Fold:
Amino acid sequence: MNMWTVLSIIFVLLVLLPNLSIIVQFFAEPNENWLHIREYMLQQYIQNTLILVLFVGVLTLFIGTSLAWIISAYDFPMRRFFQWGMILPLAIPPYIGAYTYHGILNYTGVIQTSLRNNFDVTVNQQYFNIMNMPGAIFILTIFLFPYVYTITKAFLARQSTALIENARILGSSSWRIYFRVVLPISRAAIIAGVSLVILEVLNDYGVVSYYGIQTFTTAIFQTWFGMGDLQSAVKLSGTLMVIVLGILVVERIARGRRRYSFTTTKVKLLQPVKLDGKQKWLAFSYCMFIFSIGFIIPVIQLIYWATMTYDQFLSLEFWHLIWNSVSVAFIAATIIVIMAVVISNFARLNKGMLAKTFPKITILGYSIPGAVIAVGVVTLFTALDRQLFGFYEWIGLEPTLIISTSLFMLIFAYVIRYLAVGYNSIESGFDRVGTNFTEASRMLGMSVTKSFFKIDMKLIRGAIFGGFILAFIDIMKELPLTLILRPFNFDTLATRAYQYAVDEMIQQAAIPSIFIILVSGIAIYVFHHVLEKE
Structure:
């Protein structure tokens, strides 16, 4: 058993342990709080969660696939910009979009203020109330649709144009081609994108908490922190894990066994058809409308608020927040890349059952909401601390909770949650490289480790860099895990922006929000323009 195998087994066990701790405690004897929750509140949690999942899933499917089809198949003004610009709404975390749109639409917001001051019009508040279920659906849809758009567009760009061209020759209209050809052949890619959206909806805490919607995530927070009942929080987490598992099973069934692939080695990529007249402006207007409400409008509003509170940018506390956010994201992303490289290299070079199982376990963390992972990590680390009480006394420390109140626990949770992000990028890099160079170096007498550092690492450095960037950005934006697991007096840009918004200090939340969006936007630009050229 070589070093790569041993390290892979250790890393996979670390991913599994928090989830196993939830499963074990899920079957413990229920207390009175859980009995009350199950009797009177659980149905509402399930109902609200499923409503969000259903409507956000359907709307992101329509918006993401329609944009992918229009931008891939047609040429119109600013198309080249929209190709990557439509990814930018991902740079805005939904909870930041939630309080930004609330600030725009409320009584003192720019819309109602302009109507009163310029037109002497006072409107009924219910028409501008976004802090409800439809408002949450709108926010989650408009900031999560890029998952569906990106994956579907990448799929369409690689497909042969034969089916689409034949449909055009037979006189099919654009919408008929979209519904009869594009959607069926893109089914697997579309379902993959919608599945990511659904997982993000289940993970969300900021939007539903700020808008006062009771879901599983808010229930876990309230049960844990409001009632001080970790046991009931574990049972809620276990119930949510069952729902997630059910969704993943449905997703696998929905993909089906049908596959669409090239029937010839001469693959002709999809070439956009130039639109003229009214059609090109309709396509441009649709793309610009989605881009405006998903990126331009919230960013302009945040910049306006930032001009009112720019002095906090000069404060030492703000730079301390930046240091906290960047340092933990950098450390966690580095660990993620190391673990992902080890596991993916092991899976690439071995053909046994472990090599097939480890990748599936590795991506497990991304399928589970952050609040659930937080419960599992706290349960695990608290038990570990108690086992180490004797050791603490032996080295002269007071027997108290040390590891479970440290920054180490938060970083560990980040790694479990976002390991899949780094792994998918690095695995795709290894897939492009193959094993030929590694096998040649082994025949020349190099060990597996030496071959990796001398050859493989240089060939996949773009994938490693991409995995690091994606993990870094996700951690910078992360909210539920950080709110639950951060040590006392430890804040990041994400938690501070959320706290300001909850305290109705929306203008003060603008500066940390803009910094998160700026870093995320730069990363998206780099990832799209630099890494895709490799």
About this structure: The first strand starts at residue 74 and ends at 75. The radius of gyration is 25 Å. The mean pLDDT is 82.
